[in-house]
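Write out the 3D structure for:
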Amino acid sequence: MNLERKTIFLVDDDPTNLMLGRSLLSEQYDVLTLSSGKKLLKALENKIPHLILLDVDMPEMDGYDTIEAVKSNEKTAAIPVIFLTAKNDIDSELKGLSLGAVDYIMKPFSVPRLLKRIEMHMLVELQRRELLAQRQQLIEFSNNLQELVEEKTKAVSELQCAILKTMAELVDGRDDITGGHIERTTRYLDILLEAMAQRDLYAEKIASWNNKLMLQSAQLYDVGKIGVKDCILKKPARLTPEEFEEIKRHTVFGGTVIEKIKSSTKEQAFLEHAKVFAISHHEKWDGSGYPMGLKGEEIPLEGRLMAIADVYDALVSDRPYKSAYSHEEAVKIIVDGRGTHFDPNLTDLFVKVSDKFREVLIKFNNMDAG
């Protein structure tokens, strides 16, 4: 129950009306009497009442001018205003209501009726304020809830990314590939994705891609190596045809591993990209790659992109079977593979952004040296 005494401003140029009004209302309300519209506006600078009783016929500034001033001020616009007037024509009443008055009571008035109508408008105003407060609370709750959801989503995403990265690095560790291979290939892929977007290359295909999701899923592209024997992965010499056949199976096995993960999660889109990366990154443009011997644009775009990022990193890195090539040598080898190993359009794009690849390589080499 709201026990707060409500405040009413009574505005009339007739002192008798002010005295009578105060006498009638002061038992239930705190009443401030004001003899002009200008004095009302001055009083409103210091206090906002719950309701204003406003006479229409006043010198200098009549009730219509006064309510216009009240309603034009954002601070006072919501205060309910009831006109008290001897004007009993419809036009005057409509004018008052159109200017924002909530009621129009003609003099002489019935005191019980006046009190009842004041009580009704006080109740309406109270309900309006409570609704506004509830609305604000709902907005704040919604904003807080949204922030909480975003925080939780970010935390889950970061945990997911960390798990994937750790899993991928463990796989690469079996192959004696260290020094940030997964992070480098992911950055190379990011460079290519950004350059494609800037140049509208394969724009229709990548329009639906979420690059952050793509880069996370790409970390699993070599997960199939967990199914390859150490003696083959770490062999410092040329592989026999039989051993190479086993190595080739890591693409299909990677797809199988990811498919098994898919069966126990709702995150299908993310893992679908990961599966495509895993299966197709060793396909070649001329159809001589594996495991399916796909040719040209039959090869998923994910696989064609990863082919460049993976081969570049393999070339510029030390491996059990070779020493690292220079950046310039790696670029030449990839350019020589244009139209045979690599997508011609992506090869041309790679050449344009190869300096950014070099920057990533230098940064990681400096980190290793440090």
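The longest strand covers residues 7-11.
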